[in-house]
């Protein structure tokens, strides 16, 4: 108990709060800039934490992590340029709302959903870390394959309009995901001897190109005509009771989905937002409103991606194994202080552990205030003319593309994706499925093959493993239910 | 002091500074900032090593260094970055033993001779790991079990055609048995797979599942150090179990081939200061790394030897025709 009190003393000290506020502010900005995500943000801040006590440095870094997950949605909503891969789902309805002059509403929903998601994830970490971590252990290659497949079924929800076009985009994404060194046999595939392609096409490169660069092209093409019908006064942050009544259940279910998927190493943040978006669309009374500025389409992914923060910390704290790329960087920050995350840290450094656990919950609350204060700044962004925004997006996109791996090659690739995105827009082919299947393609393929190596080629492994079976059944259901619904309504 | 006088003094001081810079030779290396080109992304083990090195070169040797991450292409991207700069020692490549694997697999369009090897500084062994409740008690038990039924145990580890699989291959050649290989794409996932009963045995870096190794949930049956590791004194080496298996992944620094000898000597002197410092020793202890100091020619011949055996392994395992 006393270690919890000590932890609170650290969190609520002047320097503790200062770390939370600074970390949050930096996180929102880093998240909003395409290409810079939470892991790069933390890496950039780590050198400043060398001489800080470990408790404070962790507060600073987890605050940044949490805030960056929200920050990604800001640029997704305002400019249709998701700052992080997780925010690509938010861009669909968020940007649609902006074009209807409801940017302030979308931003407020995103902020509220992010904070609630972050809190629920943090409390899951506080209360359920041990049991949830043992669930993560049960996931073998077969189960990971089925989770990936399940994630892929949400392509249908992302293809507003034509399902065929959505599937086309999804297949294209899967094809791109095969580029790079074959993860099982080690043979380079479709790399044409270009070493920059050995690790595959990073999905952030595709994301920045397809969303940001193509948007810059479209804006430039539109000239000075006003496409943003602006309501620039973005100020009210807390959602009203009526909004809560409408969106509350979406936010809570998104948070639960985010927490649970966040626990799975390597899966978490990237698919939670899509699964959550899909889930809320399916249970919505007006699924056809999704993609056209539906508030739940913002609330669902945003609550989920912030909840993955707590989820991803669970294997880290309970097993000592990072659950996401960002938590892997956090491990590096801890090791600098001679600390190694894991269950034994609870005994050896109880104050530090409690500072991280309760601090993570606090970050959501701090995020709410800092996020609210920053809202007017985003309003200012909306008042800029289209030509300025187009150039701004273009610059940010190029910077982000370069920052990813410090390679000019990535910048050219991003530009190519930008041209592609522009063409796809003309044909009204949705781009979200490309990103989703790029993210999932690798996961599905490696785990499919690993599972079959493990079982010596016996396909039964996918149904004899209970978790795998569960997700296979869910995948089949999610494919069949809409068809069944259509047949029923025709009768 | 009149403003004129102060001007004269400052000019004189400035001139003196310029003068010293002007007459300096490679003996005064470095004259300006040195880039440490890490060929992996931020946050991993190599990056952590590179950043610590950068910090200690600044503190202990008075250098001014900057870490530059150039990940990609199995190391090719970082390598080409350094090779496209002048051979003056101002771009030091921070790399791993992946170098020889990438060359052996033709993933990297370079030769060992393109580099001037400076020093290997960190090493990590591979260990044979099983779950707490496994029947196996020694490396020999594992060999016996595999000889009885090559498909009886699910064996795997981090990477495809990489260090750990290579260690298993050497193990198999030494003891004449067959085993499959289930690759995982992150070292942390190997420990989780063991714990979750998705693998029966793994070749893994002990530090990648440290919590589980220390709590006893994962047992190490053998370790590939020459003598018992001070970090895992209870784990017998393969050697003492009569298995000729001793090799380590290393992390070290090199410069472009053709870098002048006196520049390399200055780098070596600075690295001596780094490795002599208490900070370095604590860092190595915290990271559970074996402290290596394999220099110049020794480093190069180690890499050449590894390239040779790894090429054999890759051919044997079907990665290379």
UniProtKB/TrEMBL annotation, chain A:
Name assigned to this protein: DUF112 domain-containing protein
Annotated DUF112 domain residues: 17-436
Organism phylogeny: Bacteria, Pseudomonadati, Pseudomonadota, Alphaproteobacteria, Rhodospirillales
Keyword field: Membrane, Transmembrane, Transmembrane helix
Originating species: Thalassospira mesophila
Domain of life, per lineage: Bacteria
Keyword Transmembrane helix attached: yes
InterPro entries: DUF112_TM (IPR002823)
Chain ranges passing through the membrane: 7-36, 106-129, 135-156, 163-181, 201-220, 251-277, 312-339, 351-375, 387-407, 427-444, 459-484
Keyword check for Transmembrane helix: yes
